[in-house]
Amino acid sequence: MISNHIKIAWRNLRKAKGLNAIHIIGIAVAIAAATLLYLTAMFELSFDTFHENRDRIGLAYTTTEPESGLRHSATMPAPFAPALKAEFPDVELISRFANSSVILRHGDKQLESTNKYVDADFLSIFSFPILEGNAKALENLDGIVLDDITARNLYGSTNIVGQQVEIYQDGNWMTKQVTAVIQATPRNSSLSFSSLMRFEQMPNYSVKKEDWSNENHSVFVKLKNKVDDTKFTVQAKAFMDQYYKENNDMLKRDGAKADKNGAYISLHLLPFSDYQRNDLDLGRGASPMFPWILLLIAALILFIACSNFINLSLANAITRNKEIGTRKTLGGTTGQLIGQLWVESLLLCLIGLVIGLTLAWLILPEYNAAMNYKLQLKQLFLPLNLLYFSLAFALLTLLAGGYPAWRIAKTNIIQVLKGTVAIKGSALRNSLTVLQFAIAIVLIISTIVISAQLHFIAERPLGFTKTEVISIPIGEGINPQTALQQMRVELGAQPWVRHVSASDINIGRGNDGNMSTSRFGFDYEGRQVSTNFMRIEYDYLQTLGIKLLSGRDFNRSFSTDTAAVLINQQMAAQLGGAEKVVGKTLAMDGNPQIIGVIDDFNFQNLRRTVEPLTLSINPNIFEIAYIFVRVQTDNLQESLEQVNSIWKKVNPKANIAPSYLDENTQKMYKDEQRFAQIIIGGAIVAIVIACLGLFALALLTINRRIKEIGIRKVLGSSITQIVVLLSRDFVKLMVIAFIIASPIAWWMMNSWLRGFAYRIDISIWMFLGAGVLVLLIALATITWQTVRAATGNPVDSLRDE
Amino acid sequence: MIKLQNIFKWYHVGGTRSYVLKDINLEVDPGDFISIMGPSGSGKSTLLNLLGMLDMPDEGKYYFMEEDVFALKAKRRTALFQSHIGYVFQSYHLIDDLTVYENIETPLLYKDLPGKERKAIVADMLDRFGIVGKKDLFPSQLSGGQQQIVGIARALATSPTLLLADEPTGNLNSKQGEEIMQLFKQLNEEGVTIIQVTHSEKNAEYGKRTIHMLDGQLR
Q1: Which terminus of chain A is more exposed, N or C, with fewer CB under 10 A?
Q2: Is A27 exposed, middle or buried (0-12, 13-18, 19+ CB in 10 A)?
Q3: Which residues in chain A are contacts of B140 at CB distance < 8 A?
């Protein structure tokens, strides 16, 4: 029976080549797209899942609600973790986690390592696979844990526990002992590092040890039970009352809102499963919706392909009617007939699946390169994925093939044989077509809005010059101040270099990939004020082209300027207005005097409004980490290469390439661009598949009306009138789809845009543009057939009676 | 073999019943050869479809080999149909995409017969109707008479005890028609019960008795 089904199915497939090609292409493209999206989503959802007991791990953070709005902060002072562990019996393990980068040396081999300073518990909290040594490796204060890649690069082997390694930190070489080797952190780990050292080894640890006001690292805890944030916050209230009393009182004084427990500052735990993606701007802070949006788009694309299948099968059923009726008179049961039709759709889907997977396999390297992933098709063939896929596939074929089969098979034979029955699928068919195009329109509107917003961000004046400024990450291996001195000397001799300056924080995201902010809080005239803080160098304003509004810039001829600051307008407003603040002193380190007010510039990304900022050249507060070079050139690329070669001369160990600031600012929106690319890709796939379906549907429905068209022509209708008549039904469907899609798209895009402090307004032309575009594409799809039908000779269509 | 009791079938036309079949009572014995005659719209085909279990009446009872057909479950009814009834149509109703061989094989497939048995039966049919040479041709490659012969071969493949024919010669020329009727007569002599609907007096004469229908009633 089955072999007979397959034989017949194969014959039918070859007979209606055109229609089946549309079926298969639609399904193949949908499966290819869905596979890529599924793999991406699975990767995104797999973050940190390899940690055992991760439901017991949490990231500590404080929540406050000053007048400026709710604020979550996961940066903690050094004494916080020991105090919490001592006073909180529920905390089983705790570890601080601070970023740094160090140079490691063994013999003549030397490399830069992304290092984290952690506590002894770290390897027990998390489940990073340990290759050599054990989880107690960090109980040794002078121990260092390396990952296998670093170990191999330095020693050529991982069997190096007990070996000595030299590290360059804070201007000195020190010797540490390797106590364990772990596997390199996988790509789906949100914590990544190549070496671990004890927190106590951090530069200036002895100074910061008891300092509650210097917050510079995060803290992970492992509880005895599952993380329960609400319970934890209540339990931690006594702890906060004791250690954060001053903050609490200050917040209360300055008009902050208390939480439901009556505390102005409260301690929370972010479950580690939310570390990679959450809405609180903590941890990695990626959008929690992203993987689900991918899955949704995948499902929608499959749905569109599936609707095509159902629509075409139903429409095609009219020609199959007679055969099915005959088969019933020959004793075929409904079940047997559904079986046959199902085998046919299964065969089509199988061919589609094979082509689709091949397509996905072919595109994957491109996709990985464009999206910076390392996905592999073989990840699909995990037992669980295989199960999901087979289920989805069975459901798809059953739905796409089974439903029309069932509809045909259960119709009345007599009517079928007489040819008086029409499978009444038109309501379903129309709804499916409307849904398909509604989905396509939503995606197209989203594409337009997202592109407009990204364009807006790229073009928006940021308050500084980004085109002719090169930023050089200094990195390790050279004293930053020396580096700046030498660069000033070297570049000063070049006529095309206009200014050279430096700061501790980059603008945008440079090739080192780092972004950071420093914040300070202090009392000013009886109020708590907080400000972002940036350590800069002379000529910073000229280099970046930032406007000075009042007062003066830092000047080498004033020796007191190391104890002076520049502030931006936002900061000035906080202190009582730009006119009044120049000359005032701030209660920060060294009580600096305000010497000038500068224009606001976007030193952070455009998701945030410009925050208060204080600039200082005091060399004792922070070290500079980035050199900025303002060039004047007609050839940006050449200048970049020249700057790079001079930098290589100054710091031969430099391994991070300089980059222009406009490149850096664009890099901040990598996630948004990736999001946009996926939406655009999804929109294109959706519209292509929907149009394939529309094309075939038009082919079938117009063929059914050939006789009517002939009669109309005989009665004197013009070709245009007939084309309009035939197109009208489809246009109606498009209009309904547009009406359904618009509010959904508006709502979705509005909530997406709310994530940006600087955003475009959604305007009506974006909707109309998408609507008109879809309508044009749809009309273009059916025009060939309507015109062909309308220009046909009525004699031909009316003859066969 | 067949017993129809008080069969009614009607449609609603604007609130009043329009009868297609009205109080039909009929008995058919095994080995009978009945011709149903009557003008267009008199209910001949509807009656035949009822007998063939392809249609349902609104009222009345139908006993087929002592079984109350309309009280049976669909599955049992299909089984009854598969093993006892063969159907021949005016417009042949061969499946265009299947070869002659496959067309004849189809009802055997639905009866779930094993491949070997199917092969033997189909070969037998092809041989019996002299169409062995045409077994790999598609219906469109055959003449009308040849198509109807395939249709009959297909109907007989399951060795039914009852053969129902709805104007089997309607689309054929007189010579082809005569051949088909000769074939029917021969089949009847071999023991197959036949009920045919026909417009032609001449064809009706091949039957053992003729039933006349008018406005849904037997006369």
Answers
A1: C
A2: buried
A3: none
Q: Given this model, what pLDDT does residue A801 score?
A: 38
- Provide the residue ranges of all domains of chain B, joining segments of one domain with +: 29-58+73-218
Identify the DSSP state of A147: E
Question: Whose structure tokens read 């009406």?
Answer: A739
DSSP H helix total and E strand total for chain A: 26, 22
CB atoms closer than 10 angstroms to residue B144: 15
| 407-436 in chain A: CB under 8 A from chain B | 413-414, 417
A interface mutation test: which of B93, B113, B122 has the most A CBs within 10 A? Answer: B93
Task: Report which DSSP code applies to A129.
Answer: P
Q: What is the DSSP letter of A400?
A: I
Angle formed by the axes of helices A719-753 and A670-704, nearest 10°: 160
Query: From residue A291, how far is each of A42, A47, A276, A357, A756 by CA, in Å?
Result: 8, 11, 12, 21, 20
Q: Identify the DSSP state of A512.
A: T
Instruction: Please check whether residue B198 is in contact with residue B40, taking contact to mean a CB–CB distance below 8 angstroms.
Output: no
Quote the Cα angle for A89-A275-A137, to 5°: 60
Is A2's Cβ below 8 Å from some Cβ in B?
no
Is A336 an 8 Å CB contact of chain B?
A: yes
A653 touching B (Cβ < 8 Å)? no
Q: Tell which B residues from 52 to 111 touch A, by Cβ distance under 8 Å.
A: 52, 54-55, 75, 78, 81-82, 87, 89, 93-98, 105-107, 109-111
Provide the terminal-to-terminal Cα distance of chain B, rounded to the nearest Å. 21
Alpha-helix runs per DSSP H in B39-198: 44-51, 74-84, 100-110, 115-128, 144-156, 174-189
With an 8 Å Cβ cutoff, are B110 and A336 in contact?
Answer: yes
A584-593, B162-171, B191-200: lowest mean pLDDT where? Answer: A584-593
Residues B17-43: tens digit of each pLDDT: 888 898 999 999 999 999 999 888 888
Please give, one letter per residue, the 3-state secondary structure of A612-626: CEEEECCCCCCCCCE
- 3-state DSSP assignment of residue B108: helix
Which residue of chain A comes nearest to B87, CA vs CA?
A: A329
Residues 6+ apart with CB under 8 A from A368: A374, A375
User: Is the Cβ–Cβ distance between B14 and B189 less than 8 Å?
Assistant: no
- Which residue has 């490149």 as its token pair? A663
Q: Using the beta-carbon criterion (under 8 Å), do B52 and A329 form an inter-chain contact?
A: yes
- Closest residue by Cα to residue B158 from B105, B91, B92, B99: B105
**pLDDT digit string, tens, across residues B43-63:** 888 898 888 888 888 889 999
CATH superfamily assigned to domain B29-58+73-218: P-loop containing nucleotide triphosphate hydrolases (3.40.50.300)
Neighbours of B117 (CB within 10 A): 11
**Mean pLDDT in consecutive groups of 10 residues from the start of chain A, 801 residues:** 77 78 87 90 88 90 84 88 89 90 85 89 92 89 92 89 86 88 90 91 84 85 90 89 86 83 89 85 77 89 85 72 78 79 83 92 88 80 82 77 72 67 68 89 90 87 87 84 90 89 87 76 79 90 90 87 89 83 83 90 83 88 88 88 89 83 84 82 87 82 78 79 84 92 92 86 90 89 82 68 38
ipTM over 0.95: no
Contact criterion met (CB < 8 Å) for A323 and B107: no
Q: Which residue type does A451 have?
A: S
Residue B67's beta-bridge partner residues?
A: B64
Q: What pLDDT score was predicted for residue B16?
A: 85
Which residue do the tokens 């429905």 mark?
A701
Name the amino acid, one letter, at A736: I
Residue numbers of B between 146 and 205 with CB closer than 8 Å to A: 154, 158
CA gap A745, A438 in Å, rounded: 10
- A451: helix, strand or coil: helix
